[in-house]
Amino acid sequence: MGDSVTDFVEVARAHIARGAVVVPGDADEVWKDECAYTFSNAFGEGGVLVSLKTWVAYSPETLQLALESPCQSAGGLFLRIRKTKVEREPEGSKGKADDEAPVTEFALGTENGFKLDEQKYEVREQLSLLAVPENAEVDLPCGDLPLVVGECVKAVLEHKDGHTESLISEWKEELVTSKYADALIQLPDPKPVSSDPSKWRCANCGAKTNLWLNLSDGYVGCGRRNFDGSGGCGAALTHFEATGSIYPLAVKLGTITPKGADVFCYAADENDMVLDPALSRHLQHWGINMLEMEKTDKSMAELQIDLNAKHEFDSITEEGSVLVPAGGPGLVGMKNLGNSCYMNSVMQLVCGCAGVRKAFGEGAQQIFSKFAASFDGSSRKPQSSLVVQLAKLCSALTLARGVQREKNDAGETMSVSPDMFKALIGRGHPEFGSSRQQDSVEFFQYFLEQAARAERTEASLLPESHAEVSSSFTFEFEDRFQCAETRKVMYKARADNVLALSVPVGQATNAKDVEEYEDRQRKRQKGDGGMAAEEPKVVPKVPFSACLNAFAQDDNVDDFYSTALRRKSVAARRVRFKTFPPYLVVYLRRYYVDAAWRPCKLEVSVDVPSEIDLEHLRGSGLAAGEEELPEEEEGVGAGRGAASESVEPSQEIVSQLMAMGFSENGCKRAAIAMQNASAEVCMEWIFQHMEDANFNDPIIQESRAEAVATKAHNPESIVMLQSMGFTERQCGAALDGCGGSVERAADWLFSHADDLDAAIAEVEGRKGGSAEEGGAPVGGSKCEDGPGQYRLAGILSHIGKNTGAGHYVAHVCRGNKWYIMNDEKVAVSEKPPLDLAYMCLFERKA
């Protein structure tokens, strides 16, 4: 053994002399637990091999890629990390396993919430050092190695992987602080409320449970009756109404603990569970010491689970069904990294599309080899290349490359943990870079934008015939405007990647049943409905065809600029398809913001069909007998969200608006339209324009100054673009055509690589022309067109009150069979919840 160690030390010294060991600093990005090119990790056979020069991790199968890189063609030293899991003994002596514990919290993955399948393990680590190409290896620690090797190994091991540590997979419904709490009226000379639960009684019916204490006047009354006949006589609400509706806050007595309690606000503008920051003081007024109280009654979250919420959860996750686990190509799950289910669900739909699967799944090995051949160690690493990471994810999901089979209580499944992809796709974004829940539709559009940018800047990694990911989903709408006064028409084409459909609840086919059900609930809440048997909730059932018909209807644009009149007028707008994409993404507008600016969910069932034909919605352009309006000079007015020539949206205002549940693009439009006045003013604009067809479209600043670049460009921008291999003239032209934006200019340069001279000549021609000749951004891609007949390929459903909380689940159709993809759980679906779909993926019929 001694001789082998001595020999290894000599080999190590030779590699060190060639610069094979570089100690990472605190600011350097290190990934040590997972291969940069596959999902092989430290727990797999052979572990992972981390280069001590570049700090890039490889699997034994991808180590050859390190040797193909110019920086390590002579080999080097690699830290091998192996980990094993040893199941711990169950803790506690309650006589009931964790997964059998009752659910008491409306959350996913928390101690008291809906359980994930994650098991608790003790992790054991084994380290060694491998020299390549000598294929010599020595166990660590090894005191005979040069000091710099020990320092490098120590620094690599102490580094956190290049992402924020995952948070627990919560999907709690966030409560808002009641505006009535701070200045709550509490009547003087209070009569103390007993701290003994056995003495609590409803002042109306004498009930002993589900009792609510009015924090203003001390009245104790029953809560409202539930649909199954449980609950109470509704005295607490009746008392609030009988006393002039001026004492809005009530606390549920049996839920008071030192940690808090359930507080409800009966006021019409809140009418929901709320937070009361001064609850301890408010309770003390009635002689109740929170620190001495214990829970004796079910919380509202527990009741919500028992009644409505659990029903929806079960429907979407197919709880109660005997689901047969599935695994293999196209059937690989994605682990939840902490509120990452929105990303997991979207990527399951996207990666299953033929164009994406071919380019990034089947073409993954070619992408990896090209990247490795250009990797010099100091430039962008594979974990920072979106093209590489998309290829890694897509090849795993669609071909099961580098994916290990795992056994759990449900059977044998296959899943990956997309840490690198999530860290990269969300880098620099205030929301997608966080561990908060997000809207899946907004993420889908953001992903397409980031993928397009990466495909242009890293075009050398892709085949010459490659079609951008976004081309599979992008299509054009044809907007027809008819001036109400002149009757002349204007046709405008605009690109989009989702078809947003409103849900006309008024056209529910079971409207009478819903009305009768709601009438029964009102009677039960007032206490005069009798003790009825359990009754499932009746929700409106709206045909999918009604949603399409609502989309096809004309609407009015009140601030349409008529070039014939040279002033604003009213116009009728009709939207039709100009092109149909290979894959059509439809999202149903189930979520809205109420009058109090609270995000809410529309409880409705929509029968999404397995096949649709949209050819009747194809536009035909200018028809015989129609008189066309002359080209607009000032554009359609602010009502269509036209971008200002000089206003940049305030990031502070945009963040405030996004926190209320609106899309980033819509919030930017509001800030621009209202000149960054304030979040309140911008919110008013949103309420007026959130149904605009282009509300969620990306902002394109069509400033005429972009077409006439009169100022010298920032030298740093020129240098940055030149570092990508372009000349100063090419960089200047790109900045001219893209308004000085370096990112847009880089995209433009790579997207015009095949005809760069002609594109530059066009930009320079514009620059030398009149300011009236230009303004539109340079470039643009054509949309693929085909028949408008589609079949349903997948859906994404959401559980929760709004898209900023809750949980997403995907269902996909592979061949003729449906599968549920609930994060890492993949199984054959018995009953896909098509009527609860939020986002639908349709693929063109062959």
Automatic annotation (TrEMBL):
Residues in UBP-type domain copies: 176-290
Residues the record lists as binding Zn(2+): 202, 205, 222
Gene Ontology cellular component terms for the protein in this record: cytosol; nucleus
Family note: Belongs to the peptidase C19 family.
SUPFAM superfamilies, sorted: Cysteine proteinases, RING/U-box, UBA-like
Keywords: Hydrolase, Metal-binding, Protease, Repeat, Thiol protease, Ubl conjugation pathway, Zinc, Zinc-finger
Catalytic activity: Thiol-dependent hydrolysis of ester, thioester, amide, peptide and isopeptide bonds formed by the C-terminal Gly of ubiquitin (a 76-residue protein attached to proteins as an intracellular targeting signal)
Organism: Chloropicon roscoffensis
Family matches, as PROSITE patterns: UBA (PS50030), USP_1 (PS00972), USP_2 (PS00973), USP_3 (PS50235), ZF_UBP (PS50271)
EC number: 3.4.19.12
Class of this enzyme: hydrolase
Domain of life the protein comes from: Eukaryota
Domain USP: 332-845
GO molecular function: cysteine-type deubiquitinase activity; zinc ion binding
GO biological process: protein deubiquitination; proteolysis
Record's compositionally biased regions (Acidic residues): 625-635
Function text: Recognizes and hydrolyzes the peptide bond at the C-terminal Gly of ubiquitin. Involved in the processing of poly-ubiquitin precursors as well as that of ubiquitinated proteins.
Name this protein carries in UniProt: Ubiquitin carboxyl-terminal hydrolase
Record-annotated active site: 341, 807
Sequence ranges assigned to domain UBA in this UniProt record: 648-689, 712-752
